[in-house]
């Protein structure tokens, strides 16, 4: 059974083709960038072959996905003899609101509910929907599944997801902590349990997703109970371009003293490590790294149970991540938390074992 997985962004599409006959086997992966702009670029890497790159103008997602499908069946660089080999398609969807606690088969109702969450994820859900609609046209009749970034965190208790604002804002507008990177947190936690020989439903884990976007999650007996991200993916840790946690008064102060309109785009694209670049990336990181982990997630070990920290690190962010994790580990030691680390290794192998530090327990 071959499954095509798509992650559609506003101007990009990431994809992987996997053979799920037994153990998952990555047959090909790639990235299409600059959709809607001049000189769109497709990077395609089949299993066991070199990476191929092509450039041409791609005006929209449907044409982009069509290009990807044609590449997968190309006689020289493709890995399929026919598109009929694709048995299912998986779509990464950023926001499922409170409606989705797990992945869902894509139906007309599912699409309407994803559309209803656009107000909560205006930069992501529209692009995710474009990918779904395009694939319905290009591969009609092939079953599709939506996998939500938010669904894993729907087990968070009210004390974790409610903000200290008037309750009517939650009732009327659903303003609450939703948290993101759920697919990553769940995957690395389960993968760590498999490596450690532990039962996912009986262990306490703190997972760290560290890339250009970064978040921390507390997982207790297989369920997410807290996360650093909130109503949007901007909250929490300092990230590549996202501001992370900041005093609400700072937003007004900056708009007044710098005469700058602090828009949604600005706090997503001009802050974080990028915003501190003129200070020096290394120093900017050292001022904040590690702080949120023990303070906010001490609750996962509050009942005396040891916790394991699992770190999922993107290759492009290893330097930043190592600084962040080194600072965090010093503080975690006081909580008797054991640290395990995994990072990408090679094509088709998303994680490998790097190091183990013994717990104080």
Report what the structure shows.
The chain is α/β, with parallel strands linked by helices. It has 2 domains: 2-148, Nucleotidyltransferase, domain 5; 201-357, ATPase, nucleotide binding domain (Nucleotidyltransferase, domain 5, 2-Layer Sandwich). The chain is built from 12 helices and 14 strands. The chain has an 8-stranded mixed beta sheet with strand order 5-4-3-2-1-6-8-7. The protein has a 6-stranded mixed beta sheet with strand order 11-10-9-12-13-14, sandwiched between helices. The N and C termini lie far apart (45 Å). Mean pLDDT is 81; it is low at 279-294, 315-319 and 354-361.
Unreliable stretches:
279-294, 315-319, 354-361
How far apart, in Å, are the first and last alpha carbons? Answer: 45 Å
| CATH level 1 name of the largest domain | Alpha Beta
The count of DSSP E runs of length 2 or more, i.e. the number of strands, is: 14
- The assigned CATH architecture of the largest domain is 2-Layer Sandwich
Our count of helices gives 12
Shape: globular
Largest sheet: 8 strands, mixed
